[in-house]
Amino acid sequence: MLIQLWMAEGFLQQKVGGQELMENLGNEYFDDLRARGFFQERQNNRYGDIRTCNIHDAFEKVISLYECSVVNASCAEGDNSLIRHFSLVQDSAISTFPKALHHAKKVRTFISYIRTYANIKDLCPNIFLHFKCLRVLDLSNTNVEKVSSSIGNLKQLRYVNLSRTDIVVLPASVTSLHNLQTLKLKRCNRLQELPRDMRNLVNLRHFSISNLGYWTQMPRNIGRLSFLQTLTIFVVAKNKKKGQGIKELEGLNLLQGKLEVRDLENVKNEIEAKEANLRGKDRVRRLELHWTANDYNDGRETVEFVLKGLQPHPNLEILGINHYSGVHFPLWMTSALHIPRLFEMSLRHCNRLEHLSGFGQLPSLRVLKVFEMNRLKCFGDEEILETFPSLNTLILHRLSNLEEWVKSKSLSFSCLEVLSIEDCPRLSTMPAHFPSLKELRLLNCGSMIVNVIAMSNLTSLTSLIIQGFPELTCLPHSLLENCKHLRRLQIRNCHKIEALPQNKEGIQFFCSSSLESLEISDCPALKCARFAWFTFSSEVNYYRL
């Protein structure tokens, strides 16, 4: 966001004849300023991207001395005629346009900075009337329902953020903003329509949308926006002749970050799928591919060929597949040659797959999530020499027919630290060697799985959660015997469990002196007469409901 604001303000200038993207130039500026101490206390998201950072206090005072103003909405008074960058802090509903803003004719940035949903809808007409030099307009998190068509008169406008507002329609005059670089419409759940002629926004570089609301089709000929770098969602239309088919993605090879492609059932064959040219988009790091839920009208072979044609660039790092109705995945999804950098994969509602294998050969895969695949019976590979060499986190949730997690004949899961198995009632077979496992969650599965996992030598385990085992009568002694580093133990909704593991003297115990949190709830049959309290850490919390 920060670099997009710099672009809108004209702070980033390319060299004459230079081909470098302004966004790359902005990243260089940011890194240089951070190295000089201008930015402090940065926070990264789970993918390593910087989310927030603070400006050093000394610099903040200097840069806000003349051109910047942060004003409380209820007391916006004084001379603001020279102010160029304006942030309005919301503390109550605003019924009138603050008088102090009537003379702020040079404002280039208007940001409504609020922490909760705000009532400023009466402000909008005045903003468009008074701020003719406006370059940045951010009304996110407000109750704005309608954007006046007069927004088209703000010819200098380069950045518009209407995310999480109540807008229903974006006026057609927006398409006359030929300098517009960034348009954000995230979580506009009431939005029903986008302007037809968005192809006229020839300088648009970032178009962020999510939660499509009531509209289900992309603007026509969006593929003509050759500078587009951010397109978070693309919906494939049934009638590709209207300029809304998947071919619109073909020339958008500057796209970067996340790309989500929906309604893929409207792609009829591999040739059409290849028209998206996903393989040519080397800056896309995260790809989500969605078919419509429960749409199995086309044969499975057609769907399999479509996914084959959607092969991404080898630089892809995160992949999600949703409601895929094929029986097999294409070769590129399991090949180290095709997606060598992939570190996270999520598979949801792929309800025709019965055997999930091949992913163990991906060298960089660190996170694998498998959700709600009703026909899946078998997971894993037996013959591969080494499987999942880098896998750190494995999540298996709501797999009602999963019976077997194949035991590999060789080294597997050597780096696995987090394992979560939930709602897999038939799972009875799984590997028994997890040397690095730290967090284990077993929820609503068959009792057999507890006995199987107890055979593992879980010497690195720090957190164990066991929940929803109505037939489990006791915890295996071997499950906790070697957990020397266990800090957290939760046992919930195990109605028949009668005892915890015992030592030779018959005392129910936990061998870990490092235990910090113990929670036992909804285990009415449990007899807790004698605990070896001296083995607990002084920080332990004990709950018995």
From TrEMBL:
Q: Which residues form a coiled coil?
A: 254-284
Q: Which InterPro entries match?
A: LRR_dom_sf, LRR_R13L1-DRL21, WHD_DRP
Q: Which UniProt keywords apply?
A: Coiled coil
SUPFAM superfamilies hit by this protein: L domain-like
Among Gene3D superfamilies, the record links this protein to: Ribonuclease Inhibitor
UniProt domain R13L1/DRL21-like LRR repeat region: residue ranges? 246-373
Matches recorded under Pfam families: LRR_R13L1-DRL21 (PF25019), WHD_DRP (PF23559)
**Domain Disease resistance protein winged helix residue range list:** 2-60
Q: Which PANTHER family match?
A: LEUCINE-RICH REPEAT-CONTAINING PROTEIN 57, OS09G0267800 PROTEIN
Query: Could you identify this protein by its name?
Result: Uncharacterized protein
